[in-house]
């Protein structure tokens, strides 16, 4: 089982939570503080229901889940350095350097696109930072399933102005691949359920699009 909540510095967590609320206040609905709350809840669930790993620290899981989108390049503000933003924040809030470095490393390792470019690096990071597997799975679970569908269209409209058809293509380009990239057993089980929901949604989408265009509905595979 995971380390007990008593080992989590609640003062530090509360300070980080308030910072993240303010930092993300202007983010669009796909990456707002509600996303952080969901990822935090998922990370705690995965951590609590995964085999005990002595090196895995509950406090690192919590802080990394809260801060994983701080410094995200999609939303980076002028003058901010994504490579040190989390570290500098934690130090300013009274964290020790070891904890701040570890959380910063994990936050930089969560990215899907970074893993696609260099999957071996992520595997190496998880060996030395087992909390990364928990936070990464939690973040990716929030990108799929019914909530993931909502976030996909929200982000597409708010940030990229991509068409709905382009958003549908994104299911095939990324979202349907996430299940195979999960790191924890708990994450894999949850991802399987959420992937099935997306596949059902795509089936409905195909049927309705075909009906509207007067074409035969696509045959389910």
Automatic annotation (TrEMBL):
One Pfam match, by short name? HD
- InterPro entries per record: HD/PDEase_dom, HD_domain
Q: Which residues belong to any copy of the HD/PDEase domain?
A: 28-153
Q: Which domain of life is it from?
A: Eukaryota
| Entry protein name | Uu.00g100950.m01.CDS01
Which species does this protein come from? Anthostomella pinea
